[in-house]
Design a protein that fits this description.
This protein has 412 residues and is of the alpha+beta class. It has helices at residues 47-54, 65-71, 96-108, 114-133, 140-148, 163-167, 171-181, 197-207, 256-269, 275-281, 314-334, 338-354, 359-372, 378-384, 388-398, and strands spanning 5-9, 15-20, 26-33, 75-80, 85-92, 187-193, 231-237, 243-250, 287-294, 301-309, 405-411. Helices cover 42% and strands 19% of the residues. Strand 1 and strand 2 form a beta hairpin.
Length: 412
Amino acid sequence: MTGQVTTFTLANGLRVVHQQDSATAMVALNLLYNTGARDENPELTGMAHLIEHLMFSGSANVTDFDGELQRAGGTSNAWTGNDFTCFYEIIPAVNVETAFRIESDRMLSPAISRRNLDIQRSVVIEEFKQQCLNRPYGDLSHCLRSLAYRVHPYRWPVIGLEPSHLERVRLEDVFDFFDSHYSPSNAVLAVTGNISAERCRELCEHWMADIPARPVAPRLYSAEPLPEEPRELEASGHVPYTAIIMAYPMDGYGTTGYRAADAVTDVLSNGKSSRFEHHLLTGTDLFSELDASITGSEEPGLLMVNARLRDKGPEAESRAIRAIGRELDRLIDSGVTGHELERAKNKFESQYTFGNLHYANIAGNLALETMHGERPGASVAAYRALTKTDVDRYARTILDSSRRMTLIYRPI
């Protein structure tokens, strides 16, 4: 990442981070709210994603959000996660005030009406059916979350637990959730591209500083307790292959344990020289696909081994689970090598560097770093500081077979 990064906070609590890139004629705005599916009522899941849709229905002074942006040569999109919700625009620098104006208007007063709610509710329910009910492995996330979480709101996916929750949402529920989570004091605005720090501050003060800071609802849910014994869940669907997911509890973002878990998954499955590739994918005929990953969540999440089997039946499943278990035991017993750890660090730094070559990507990364209270590039330095002792110690803790949760998803 190049160019000076400037940060400031408006009187209403909105944190702003800016970086200028004069090599482009465009500007990116990335507005990140510290809210997501983890803030929902367990009886009304899918609310954060529904509100994301409603935020494109216009606002008090902007009847056609996308239309105004497109007429100014811009585009927009959004995403909702378990932890955060993000709205972003890309627009020619000469028309950048349009993006500030319309984004500020929907932060202040989105057009949440009964008609808009009915329309977007139908859209999201149809999305639920397409993604979760009518697609192979579509309900796999529901199955895994129900297995891994018993009390924490990570137990439901962003799309929601079931369509009936969305059907029960009232207009008052939407207003309550918006008012208690979408406050400027609960957000970070990142602005990058061909705009000076002075112009960025001027537009922020003009369009956003007067938006009232609303009280943000506290998070009152409980932490997820560690499993007291191994868990297993069997499911089935219209799928071509048996899928097996072996999940292990791990630390949340920003901890040494989180970074160690990420390094472990790199050693296991990132690249042709990884252990899974070398010992299980080319070394056996058990798997058509095999990888390891982490959920990447703010609060304690999961390290997962994801497998697709070539053969069906109990014997193939047992052989696959034993083979994966032996590979994990080998990592626990002998630890990672210095070469493996250095390769993982290099890949992390490379991904960070290449992920910050484009001004729009920089906006998203700066918003997340500011939300985390990190300096730009601090995650690279923290990852570089990992030692073999760190990774080996956390690997033994995380890959404890007594805490393993195994989901077997079979073809019908």
